[in-house]
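Input structure tokens:
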């Protein structure tokens, strides 16, 4: 039940952070998306569907801005490249040049999702 309580307490904050930062970063990309959803996931920080839906873990609201920005940009860039090709990572690097270090730290702290 604690997980649910944390989710409910942070869901709206996470949605506002994601919307604000997507609006900012999309000035550089100019992509179109369908919906933005905040979820209570155990294993993912975010995802992007073929339909253009962007999903984010509510715990994005608890991360340092540098980390949440990386996750937001990562999913936003999947709207342009639906893979993890060199082209995709070049898109991410356009607005998050230090993404490799941030990514490494997030992977190291993946246990915080559980």
């Amino acid at each position: 039940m604690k997980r649910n309580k944390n989710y409910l307490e942070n869901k709206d904050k996470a949605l506002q952070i994601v919307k604000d930062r997507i609006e900012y970063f999309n000035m550089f990309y100019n992509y179109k998306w369908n919906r933005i959803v905040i979820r209570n996931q155990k294993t993912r920080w975010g995802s992007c569907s073929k339909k253009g839906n962007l999903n984010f873990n509510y715990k994005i609201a608890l991360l340092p801005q540098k980390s949440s920005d990386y996750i937001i940009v990562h999913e936003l860039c999947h709207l342009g490249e639906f893979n993890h090709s060199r082209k995709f990572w070049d898109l991410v690097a356009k607005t998050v040049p230090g993404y490799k270090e941030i990514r490494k730290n997030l992977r190291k702290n993946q246990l915080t999702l559980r």
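The chain is about 55% helix and 10% strand. The mean pLDDT is 94.
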